[in-house]
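Sat 14:20. Reprocessing the chain from the morning session after the first attempt stalled halfway. Input below, unchanged.
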Amino acid sequence: MACGDRQTVIDRLETRFGETRQSIGLGRGDRVVELFASTETGSWTIIVTRPDGVSCLLATGDAFEDIIVPQGDPV
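Finished this time. Tokens:
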């Protein structure tokens, strides 16, 4: 798993892949989980950031699609 300083990881995702943060959540152990994606290329990356500021790549892929599900609709 590739890890580094959070800001360095985010800067690299933006400059190399055009990815920006699409969503964020708090995981176990006070770890921040973020999804970055490019709506132009469809690439996406999930990173997990530890409380000490180190971010690690968790998963990457293609064909990102932003979906808005109306409230009350079954998934």
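The mean pLDDT is 94.
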